[in-house]
Specification:
Elements (H helix, E strand, L loop, with lengths): L1 E3 L2 H8 L4 E6 L5 H12 L3 E6 L9 H6 L4 H11 L3 E3 L3 H4 L21 H4 L3 H16 L3 E5 L3 H13 L5 E5 L19 H6 L1 H13 L5 H13 L4 E9 L14 E9 L2 E9 L1
Parallel strand pairs: 1-4, 2-3, 2-5, 3-4, 5-6
Antiparallel strand pairs: 7-8, 8-9
Helix pairs in contact: 7-8, 10-11
């Protein structure tokens, strides 16, 4: 596996290859592994980027506390058969003299509701860095997890803005045996909190199984009460949405998706599930 730290190295080693790209911020787990494996299974020369992007953190403490396990990440990627890992410094991604305006994108209500409401500027930062990385890596395909379903929608919209030449592949959320979605943030949970965190998946599966017999309003109320029963939880949102527009729905009408975000102590967790 090649370790590249500059744009020039990436260009040199990927020239003539059909590239599958997995952008990450490190602290890798099996969820990231499924993205790498999917790219390999598609026959791609697989490039993973590890870059903790400062522009997508609206909370400075989240940036400061983001876990870094670079040696473990490199060993894990090597074991998966990754072809190249790109580990740039900030100045290698955000270069002085670049026309920053061309990397700023707007996505309407998609970037201002749910995650966008509670993390202002987050999706603009995501789109900015993904656009830059797409130019550096020039992938044919890029892989993103469905756990960050709104981010996936933003990246798909970005790809469309850029001409639609890059296929954006969404990969199903990898979960712990408890149902908890795998996330780098889980490393910051105590053993007691890891048990409590299963409430998120329980509420999602309740919505998934209850859509035939309960109203959207009643399910949302049940979820609210479950989170309010434990003072360590702070529910930001639980909504049932149209998966194409991200508009909240009030009555069941075809395929939809339940989305949730909540703080457990100081740790913010998100998840979602398809219905039915």
């Amino acid at each position: 596996m090649i370790i590249a730290k500059s744009r020039a190295e990436v260009k040199r080693y990927t020239e003539g290859e059909t590239v599958g790209f997995v952008p990450t911020m490190g602290a890798l787990h099996e969820g990231h592994g499924t993205l790498v494996t999917a790219s390999k299974d598609d026959g791609n020369y697989t490039v993973v980027c590890i870059f903790i992007n400062p522009s997508q953190f609206n909370n400075p403490s989240d940036f400061e506390n983001y876990p870094i396990n670079l040696e473990d990440d490199i060993a894990y990627l090597d074991s998966l058969g990754c072809d190249l890992v790109f580990i740039p410094k900030v100045y290698e991604v955000y270069r002085s003299g670049d026309d920053e305006g061309r990397y700023i994108h707007h996505f309407g209500s998609l970037e201002t509701r749910f995650e966008g409401e509670f993390r202002p500027g987050h999706f603009r930062g995501v789109a900015q860095v993904v656009h830059i990385l797409f130019e550096i890596v020039e992938p044919a395909m890029a892989y993103f997890g469905e756990k960050d379903i709104q981010q996936l929608a933003v990246v798909r919209a970005l790809s469309s803005k850029l001409g639609g030449k890059i296929a954006i592949v969404g990969i199903e959320t990898k979960r712990e045996k408890s149902g908890l979605a795998m996330s780098s943030r889980n490393l910051r949970l105590t053993s007691d909190q890891l048990q409590k965190a299963t409430l998120i998946h329980q509420c999602l599966t309740m919505a998934q199984s209850g859509f035939k017999s309960k109203s959207v309003v009643s399910i949302k109320e049940e979820v609210r009460l479950k989170f309010e029963a434990d003072a360590e939880w702070n529910l930001e949102y639980f909504e049932v949405i149209d998966p194409q527009t991200f508009d909240p729905i009030t009555v069941w009408a075809g395929p939809c998706r339940a989305v949730v975000a909540a703080h457990l102590g100081e740790i913010r967790l998100i998840d979602n599930i398809a219905i039915p």
